[in-house]
Specification:
134 residues; alpha+beta
Amino acid sequence: MREPVKPGTVGEEQFVVEDKHLIDFVHDGMPAILATPWLVWFLEHAARNAVLPVLEPGESTVGVVVNVQHLAPTPLGEKVVCRARVISIDDTQISFQLEAHDEHEQIARGTHKLRVIQAKRLARKVEAKKRRQA
């Protein structure tokens, strides 16, 4: 990292719930609502957005811990805003407080940890694992 990300830094990710973001078990009276895995995906990207400005070329991030409570349903077509606020930094690991709101209420809260990594080093590990499978 060029400089450490500072506690209090906020990353944000916004989206509108589309068909692809819905649960895949909409039947027997179950309404079409935002699926939790998609919500977590957008929350992780909000955290990543907080860190991107301080990454050096060749650096990236990987999620290492996710703890999210999905509090309320969000229907198709609703706008969702996900925010991640840096709460602590420990070497290459960054901890975040997460929250998400739709147009009516808070729909999620939790915590997340990202690790800053060297992309080429990770790619070498992945290639080595793929060779062991062959």
